[in-house]
Specification:
homodimer, four-stranded antiparallel sheet, globular
């Protein structure tokens, strides 16, 4: 569960419904996290899937998100996603303005 | 998968790890959506759970989120959540600035 002390920061909320996920799809999250960790401004990523999948990646600035959108691996995933993996997806870019946590 | 044409709007990203979810917990999302639908400014909610759970609710304004935080059912869920359901959780309030979608 990603947290950050420094507000504001930015999130990309990616929601998706699957079409034809193949073996490559199942390694996708790990592969993209490894790749994102090489980028400036990457804070972390949270993922979960029921029928709907939600992945939220967190970034220091909007510019970091813009640069990430041009990453080769990321572009490959988006193209393969449209061709095969996803029935539909939605991407929301947002600014995180407040945050609080509970821990037992 | 929630979308909105009118930008900006707002999201509450709720991530959680479970402690002791009981029967009441398993009806929680549906119950909270029914309750949220009665509130001004509610747009929709997306939920998924793997080990980590992610629920994102969408609202027209920050004030709508503030009023929702005082809703009786919502307060009950937060208290029961701390007592029993959650090992930990994190809440992020954010402003959605851009959005795009793909549909096969």
């Amino acid at each position: 569960m990603t947290t950050s002390n420094e507000l504001p920061y930015y999130a990309v909320i990616f929601t998706s419904l699957l079409h034809l996920p193949d073996e490559e799809y199942h390694g996708l999250d790990e592969k993209l996290i490894l790749e994102a960790k090489k980028m400036d401004g990457f804070i972390g990523m949270d993922s979960a899937r029921s029928l709907l999948g939600i992945s939220v990646s967190y970034w220091k600035t909007l510019e970091d998100i813009q640069i990430w959108s041009q990453n080769t691996q990321h572009i490959f995933a988006k193209e393969k996603g449209k061709k095969l993996w996803y029935e539909s997806y939605n991407v929301k870019i947002c600014k995180i303005e407040k945050e609080y946590s509970f821990k037992r």
